[in-house]
Structures are given as C-alpha cells and as structure tokens.
Amino acid sequence: MPRVPTLTRTVDPVAIPGVRRTAAETATSRGAVVAEAEARLALTRGRNAQVVGGAISDLGATVTGAGIAIGQIALQERQRADEVALMEAENQLSAWERERLYNPQTGALAQQGKASFGLPESVAGEFNTVAGDIEKKLGTDRQRLAFQRLKANRYAQVDLTLRRHVLGEMQQYEAGELKSLVDNSLSNMAANATDPARAGYELSKAVDAIERSGPRVGLGPEQVKAQVEAVRTKGHTAVIESLISQGQTRAARAYYDEAKEQIAGDSIARVERALREGTIRKEAQTKADTILAAGGTLTEQREKARAIDDPDVRDSVMQRLEHEAAVRDRAQREQEENTLRGVYAVVEQNGGDVDAVDPKVWATLNAKDLAGVRAYARNIAKGEPVETDLEVYYGLMKKAAGTGGAFLRENLLRYKGQLSEGDFKHLAQLQTSLRTRAIDAASDADKAKAKLVVDEFQSKAQVFNDRLTAYGIDPNPKEGTPEAKAIANLRQMLDRQVRALSGGETGKTATNDEVREILDGILSSQITVKQSGTWSGLFSSAPFFDTEVKRRAFELTIEDVTPDERKRIEEALWARRMPVNDATVLETYIQARFRQ
C-alpha cells in the first residue's frame, strides 16, 4: 500500500533581525515614586467599579419596566378584542330585533288582534336560536360569558316590548268583541220584542259581559256602571219601538210601565213621544179605514174626520184620507191615459176613422178628450201633420212653469190634435221629468236628470217673464184675447231662435244671457206694414193713416197680411206640401218680415 509522505515543520529560535520593541510610559518612567503611582491606580479602580455597578443597576430597572409595559399592552389588546367582539355580537342582535319586531309589514309589532297573542313565545324561540348562533362564533370564554349577560338583558327588553304590544292588542280585541256582543244582544231584543223572556235573557247577557270584561279593557267602576245603564236604556227602548212599529201599542205601553225604572231620564220623553205617536197612528189608521170603507167624495170624508175630538188623531186621519185620494187620482189618471192612448192608436191604424173605436170605450171619454181625438182624426184623414195651436201649447208651458202641480195632473193626450209631434214630445218629456222629481221612490240618477230638465225650463221661463215686464208687457194675458195670441207668437219666435242656436253640430244649450239677448232683439225690432184706416195696436196705438205703420213682429195678425202676400205664401206652402191655414200663413209672413 502506498504511503503519504508527512512534512515536519520546525521553529527557528533566532530573532528576527531589526525588530524594535516599545512600551507605554508609566509614572515611574516619568520619575514618580512607586507609592504615589500605586495610590493613584487604586483610586482609579474604585471609581470604575462604582460606574459599572450603577450601569448594572440601571439595566435591571429598565428590563423590569419593559416587562410591566408589555403586560399592560397585552391586557389592553385582549380587552379591546373582547369589546369589539361583543359590540359585533350586539349589532347582530340589534339587526335581528329591528327586522323581527319593527318591520312595518312583517314585524311582530305590526301584528294585530288575535294574530299577536302568541308572539312572546314564538319570538322567544327565534331569539334563542339567533343568539345561540352568534354565541358560537365568539372566540373566548370571556366573550361568551359577557355575551350571555348581554343576551339576558336584551331578551328581557324584547319580551317586555312584545308583552306590552300583546296586552294592548288583547284589550282592543276584547273591547271589539264586547261591543259586538252588546250590539247583537240589543238587536236580538228588538227582534224578539214580543217574547219578554228572550228579550230579558239578551239584556242580562249584555250586562254580564260589560261587568266582566269592562275592567279588563280599561273601564273604571263608574264607566262600567254608565255602560250598563246605557245598554239597559237602549235595550228597553228598542223593544218598545219595535212593538210600536208592529202596531202593538198596548203591549208597548205595558212593557214601558214595567221597565221604566231602568230607562235613563233623558230618554223617557222620547219613549213617551213614541208611545203617543204610536197610539195616534193606530187609532188614526182604524178611523181612516172606517171612513174610507164607507165611500163618498174626499169632501164628504173630510167632514167625517172633522168630527174626531183628538186633534192629533184628526190631523192624522185627514192626511191618510188625502193620501188615499191622491193615490186614487193617480190610478184613475193613468187608466184614462192608457184608454186615450189606445183610442189614438186605433184612429191612426184606421186612417182617422173614429167609428173604428169601440163604442163602450168611446162612451168613457169626456168632452175635451173627444174634441182632441176628432181634431187629430181630421189631420190623419187629410194626410197632414198636426200644427201646434200656440195658445194651447204655451198655456200648457205656463202650467208647467207654475208650482201648483196642475201640469203634473194634466192628461196631455187630449191635446194631441192641437200639438205637433215635436211639441207634444217636448211637453211629455217635461211632464215626465216633473213627475219623476216629485216621486220619492225615483232613483237619485233619475231625479238628478229630471231636475236638470225642469230647472233649465223654469229658468228660461223666468227670463221670459222678467224681460217682458221690463218692456211693460204682461207675460200672462188672459186666454183667448189678442194679447194672448201675440204672446204666443213671441214665444214661438223665441223658441225657434233658441233651437237654432242650440241645435246643429254645436250641441250646446242656450244660456240665460243668450236667451235674454235674443228676446231683446225680438222685442226691440220694428216691422213696417201697410195698413189703411185706423188701427189700435195691442200694446200701443197708431193714429189714422192709410199708408204704413211700424209694429213689433210678434204683434202682427193675419189681418196684416195683404191679399197679394197671402197668395204668394199659400203657393209656397202648397209647393212645400205644408198645411195652408191662417196660422201657417201668419207664421211664414212673420218669419220673412223679421228676417228682413
């Protein structure tokens, strides 16, 4: 095996040439004595020892202070972490509480009535579940212990809030149920007025409920007492009034005598008035039935009623007799209208032949009805439409504008031979509206519609009367006089212009101001007519002239139409296939002259 050679090193003891040695200068080297040098050395060593000892002491103090500071910082950080964790946990509870209790739609405090009664128990379970989940997420036992104290305090607050809410809802609910029970009992008392035992049971039930539930819903002793007294008064009054309405005035009086002590003093007078009225009504009904059964005219029946001693009973009997007479008159009027309507239908179907009407029916018609049917039949036989007799038409309009009710009772069918189809329909509509407004059973909508028609007509009639009065003209002259004919002409002219203004595509209704303006134009207009001899106007007089005079259009008469003018008008009417008579000739003449 090969061997690794080793090397042996040796140190040469020969000094290095040229080496220089130096040393620090001492006290002895400077010539000081040895003792003095040693003393100074000892002093220096003592001072150095003190410095070192003080430094060591300061270092120990510094180390101790640093340890204390570190401990305090760690404690503060731990407390801060606990507080932050607890703050977060409390915020989570608050968010749950805000949503679960105070949400305006789904929150517990939004629940009312019976729906709120189980809230304390159901919300308690939810609270424990939510709080348990929050507690599990806490990091230390210290945090969990602190949260348990916070949880207990928060649950107490939530529970108190819920129980206050439930208490209020329970009071309201019970108060509502109490009111319903009392109302039902009072209704049952009235419904069972003829059964005193049942009525007494219902009253006792209501009183017991008030005395039992009243204090729980916040009523004090005096309030409970007042409620009981009010219920007794209402119950007894309801029974008495029910008996009176059934005509059992004797039973009502007997019940009142027995229950009077339980009826409040301020209701006694009302109950006694009701008893008095019930007695009067019963007696009046009996006496009126006796008088009506005996028959006779209304005048004869009223004479019998005047013999009744009790003034209240007498007045009630009078009212009943007049009511029955009005009902009979209405039934008779409707029967006459139906009969006359049938007669006109027969005449129309037979070309104006009145002999086609059943003789028995013909015999039931009065003189006015017969005259109207014959006039209508003549127009049908001629094949001509009926021309309106202006005096008849505006006489009926005058009745309609009055307040006596004569127009309501008028049988318009008897004027069918004196009114054009349009004028007849207008009057019939007006009469229907007036009757509708006067009928209590009519619907509100029908009454409102009728009121519009009537009010508009009466308003226009008032404007007409006021303007004529302002011009010194009597708006209501005696029927059959020349003045009455002139006023009829004036009304016709006004109606024609009002219809022209209101009709067509506009569909508007002439206002009172517009009617007044049209009327002023007619009244102030002057028409020149030729005349010979002396003429006395309807509203003014003219001197003797045989040339021309000025008159207002509505004052013209058929005598003002010259023979030549009449001939031309008649030819025009024949050409238009219109009736030719004095009325149509005069109307055409006035229209032409007024336009000129």
Task: From the structure above, extract its key features.
single chain, 596 residues, mainly alpha, 19 helices, 69% helix, elongated
Weakly predicted, low-confidence segments: 4-14, 16-23, 533-545
Structural class: mainly alpha
What level of helicity do the residues show?
55-70%
Radius of gyration, taken over Cα atoms and rounded to an integer in Å: 59 Å
Strand order of the largest sheet: 1-2
- Largest sheet, if any? 2 strands, antiparallel
C-alpha termini separation: 169 Å
- Give the percentage of residues in beta strands: under 5%
What is this structure, in a nutshell?
With 596 residues, the protein is mostly helical. It has helices at residues 34-102, 119-136, 141-191, 196-213, 221-245, 249-259, 265-294, 298-305, 311-349, 359-362, 367-382, 390-401, 406-409, 421-438, 444-470, 482-502, 512-524, 563-575, 582-595, and strands spanning 527-530, 548-551. Among the domains are: 384-524, no CATH class; 526-596, no CATH class.
Describe the structure.
The protein is mainly alpha-helical. Among the domains are: 141 residues, no CATH class; 71 residues, no CATH class. It contains 19 helices and two strands. The longest helix has 69 residues.
Question: Layout of helices and strands, plus pairs?
Answer:
Elements: H1 34-102, H2 119-136, H3 141-191, H4 196-213, H5 221-245, H6 249-259, H7 265-294, H8 298-305, H9 311-349, H10 359-362, H11 367-382, H12 390-401, H13 406-409, H14 421-438, H15 444-470, H16 482-502, H17 512-524, E1 527-530, E2 548-551, H18 563-575, H19 582-595
Antiparallel strand pairs: 1-2
Helix pairs in contact: 1-2, 1-3, 2-3, 3-4, 3-5, 4-5, 5-6, 5-7, 6-7, 7-9, 8-9, 9-11, 12-14, 12-16, 14-15, 15-17, 16-17, 18-19
